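Hi R.,

As promised on Friday, here is the backbone we talked about, encoded as structure tokens. Could you run it through your design pipeline when you get a chance and send me back a sequence?
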């Protein structure tokens, strides 16, 4: 009976917490390298992944970056976060770009439309608390020789 309860508990926890969306090993390494370089922690359950025949683009979150604070455990330095985008397009690695974060733009979804990456999310009105941006917005990016370049509206 004890084993059954343990198995049920493990099953429920895996269903409740879910899995991290899968990405290629190359993209996984790019995200890991970025997290390590800022001494932050990736919250992988918030990944948004878009794959096409020629592209794999990922929106991911780095939390609590410690930067040069060697005393603290990576990912434990504050409650701020950054939403970043990286990927591989036509076999070429695209460097990460910050597309939002606490206090700026809450990037919520990612899509590719006719070769343009579309990031939908929320911005902050002057009266919004830090927890709750309320202004809907869209940011668009194009591919440009290994970099994502924001298309100005």
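Update: got your reply. Pasting your designed sequence below so it's all in one thread:
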């Amino acid at each position: 009976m004890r084993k059954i309860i343990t198995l049920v508990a493990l099953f429920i926890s895996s269903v409740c917490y879910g899995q991290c969306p899968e990405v290629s090993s190359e993209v996984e390494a790019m995200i890991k390298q970025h997290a390590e370089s800022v001494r932050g922690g990736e919250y992988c359950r918030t990944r948004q992944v878009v794959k096409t025949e020629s592209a794999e683009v990922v929106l991911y979150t780095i939390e609590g970056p410690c930067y040069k604070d060697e005393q603290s455990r990576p990912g434990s330095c504050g409650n701020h976060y950054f939403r970043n985008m990286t990927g591989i397009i036509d076999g070429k690695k695209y460097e990460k770009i910050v597309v939002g974060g606490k206090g700026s733009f809450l990037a919520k979804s990612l899509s590719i439309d006719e070769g343009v990456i579309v990031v939908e999310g929320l911005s902050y009105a002057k009266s919004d608390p830090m927890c709750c941006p309320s202004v809907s917005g869209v940011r668009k990016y194009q591919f440009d020789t290994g970099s994502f370049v924001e298309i100005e509206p």
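One thing I noticed while checking it: The beta strands are 41-42, 48-51, 55-63, 81-89, 92-101, 105-113, 116-123, 135-144, 147-151.

Thanks again,
M.
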